Amino acid sequence: MYEFVIFTHITAAATWIGGSMLLFVLGLTLRDKEAQKIVYFYIGPLYGYFETVVLIILLLTGGYMYVVNGFHDNPEKFTYELGYYMHIKIALVALITIATVVHMFVSLKSNGRDKTLKEKILARGSSLLIFFLNFVILWLAIQIRNYL
Predict the structure, then answer these.
(1) pLDDT in tens, 18-73
(2) CB 58 within 8 A of CB 12
């Protein structure tokens, strides 16, 4: 069972990061603003709902692995470095989840119309935060796996 959960978690993480990279590169390279509006109008909601499911899978499988590895009831599991990486990863996962909720709310609310300045700042800022946090969380996951 544990191997299936790890497989599911890694597959979901690859999907999450890959989708984020695709949309990030699309936003940088698609210079025609009308084409960009059309693409995001159709892809945005679909991607948002799909990624919401993926995020839920990541949270559930990550929580399962946290419990199975004894972190919930065994403080000795937290050696200095392992505990440090785990706590930082948990904090960043919480932050990326909040950023995702903000991004989804703003993007779905403004889909099909021009965003206000505040909406642009929130949407782009949360998108950039999500994009860069993906790689930090991935690096932390590798470090944690090295200790387990």
Answers:
(1) 988 888 888 788 888 888 888 888 888 888 889 999 999 999 999 999 888 877 77
(2) yes
Largest CA-CA distance found in the chain, in angstroms, rounded: 56
Residues in the chain, overall count: 148
d(CA 119, CA 14) in angstroms, rounded, equals: 28
Positive or negative torsion for Cα 143, 95, 75, 71: negative
What is the extent of the structural domain holding 130?
2-147
The Cα–Cα gap between 107 and 122 comes to: 9
Domain count, the chain: 1
User: Average pLDDT, whole number, for the chain?
Assistant: 89
Rounded to two decimals, the pTM is 0.84
> Cα–Cα distance between 123 and 26 in angstroms, integer?
15
If phi > 0 it is left, if psi is from -120 to 50 it is alpha, else beta; for residue 133 that is alpha
